Amino acid sequence: MLHLDLDAFFAAVEQRDKPSLRGRPVVVGGVGGRGVVATASYEARAYGARSAMSTAEARKRCPPGTAFLGGRFAAYRRTSDVVMALLRDLSPLVEPVSIDEAYVDLAAGGHDLSVDGVTELARGLKARIAEATGGVTGSVGIGSSKLMAKIGSDLQKPDGLVVVPPGSELEVLHPLPVTRLGGVGPATAARLHQVGVKTVGDLAAKSLADLVALAGKAHGAGLYALARAEDDRAVVPDREAKSVSHEETFERDLTDLDVLNREIDSMAGRVGERLRRTAVSGRTVTLKLRRYDFTTMTRSQTLAQPTDDPRLIAATARRLLAEAGTQGGLRLLGVGVSGLSVFAQGDLFAEDILAGEGEPSADEPADAEPAVLAEPPPTERLWWPGQDVRHEEFGAGWVWGRGLGRVTVRFEGPRTAPGPVRTLAADDPLLQLADPPDW
DNA sequence: TCTGGGGTCCTAGGACCC
DNA sequence: TCTGGGGTCCTAGGACCC
Q1: What pTM value is reported for the model?
Q2: Annotation marks residue A101 as catalytic
Q3: A101, A169, A263, A412: which is the annotated catalytic residue?
Q4: How far is the C-alpha of A342 from the C-alpha of A347, rounded, in Å?
């Protein structure tokens, strides 16, 4: 198993693209009054800037001339894609953990798995990454499991390369602080320290029953196994998303319900757009709120049918906010959808709910009547339920598979104008189903 | 000018069902 | 005529990760 972790990734991309930033402290993250640091370059870390620190604190620590940047995620995404493609040249089993981190199952790539073999392979990979990205470096760890690969990549940052030879796992693992294990955060670390556990070796001396009592059933059993370097977690290349959400911390706490409701509409719009882009819908709408005193709560409601309709998501979230109240002011609101499935049921149904529940027109812009901006293009494609079809592939329509012998085509206007829904029978000529699958 | 934003997984209680 | 027992779904919160 190989683990790759790109070094100070966002800051490294900025330094690559802006030569004037090279060799200087760079901090990427929120630059507003309530921002936090996403990535600090190694030069900025020398002054004590760290990820997750408030940007205000980082400004105090870093000298004049430090660059504080808001971040250019499209550039980071492009660079990440280049790196992930290099990893996929090594093996079909690549699991991106985040934009700057991935596991690679080298065994599935048919490589020489000797220590010398994988060391050479990693050297070549690092060189290709630096070349293809214009100088972004990564730290590589290789071992007999995800655990050991990740521990290895962490051992020699930045620009590191550590191979943990099979058989030496416990030797490497046991002297390390427990906090190096994934899943041991501040809360678990504090509890472990209370019972005298500081290193992974200390952890390995605890009984399974002790750890389950301390950390719960699943977590306790997980710690027990990791302390023994027992880890058979597989590389999973394509994880399906389980939820989609958007949240926002305001520059100043907000109290006005009208203002907050407009924020909800905007966030529901973004969530709905992302659901549609990935051709999924969800049944559970969750409102997250953080009050003036940083207390955080969630309120959720599960609908009878999955939806991707921003209006229904917003109406549900608004109701949850009205029930929760805004007393004292809110510093954050978030809107999320979970319980995802691959088909969109019932935008007609959603219309019914919106129309049937009180003040619909008060919530709706005056020009809400759906606009058909374009007829569907003459199709040369076969569509069937469940098929993943991208917007640009067929112009103005969206296709949703329902698996019930019909296909819903949604005609989309500009981003702000949801279109009507037309349900087509399986034999509708629009679909040109030459060879209908067995629905 | 304390404390982001996007996620995942787990736990626990109550409702409900057979 | 003391108190069953699983299973699933829903909701809320917490811990954790990058």
Answers
A1: 0.80
A2: yes
A3: A101
A4: 14
